[in-house]
Amino acid sequence: EYWCHQCVKRCACVEGRGLVGRCAMDPNDPAAAIYDINNVRRNTGAISHIRSFGSVLSGALAGILGLTGLHGFALYLIFSLGLSGLLRLNCGSDISMYFASSTAVYTEGILGGLFTYLLFWTLVYGMVHIY
């Protein structure tokens, strides 16, 4: 199932062999990209899984190090920015080949990752420093 990003209609005529093709209504317009919804969902899900796993690891690290208050949140911010940079490098120069929005690499899954981070931060902190 293919959807045109510009006219937001289902397109049956897709010449692109991968994720991105051109809308038959205006194939020369760069905004008339056609995205395979299943691939976009899979890529977005992959970023969410990567962020969740990374949040578990960084939350455990913050708990082991005994970080409290803003220092712990600073670790999550540093980790999240570093992970976004690594994901950006992995996508190469053209993010639009993988996602409908070029900011998805930077913003997808950050809030869910924060909750996972807090959970493991407090769990490991309590196990190491309190008990």
Q: What report would you give on this structure?
A:
With 131 residues, the chain is mainly α. Helix content is 58%, strand content 8%. The chain contains 4 helices and 3 strands. The chain has a 3-stranded antiparallel beta sheet. It is elongated and about 55 Å long.
Features:
131 residues; 3-stranded antiparallel sheet; 4 helices; 3 strands
Physical arrangement of strands within the biggest beta sheet: 1-3-2
Secondary structural class: mainly alpha
Distance from N terminus to C terminus (CA atoms, Å) equals 53 Å
Helix percentage: 55-70%
Low-confidence stretches: 6-19
Please summarize the sheet with the most strands.
3 strands, antiparallel
- Approximately how much beta-strand content do the residues carry? 5-15%
Q: Give the averaged pLDDT, no decimals.
A: 77
Total count of strands: 3
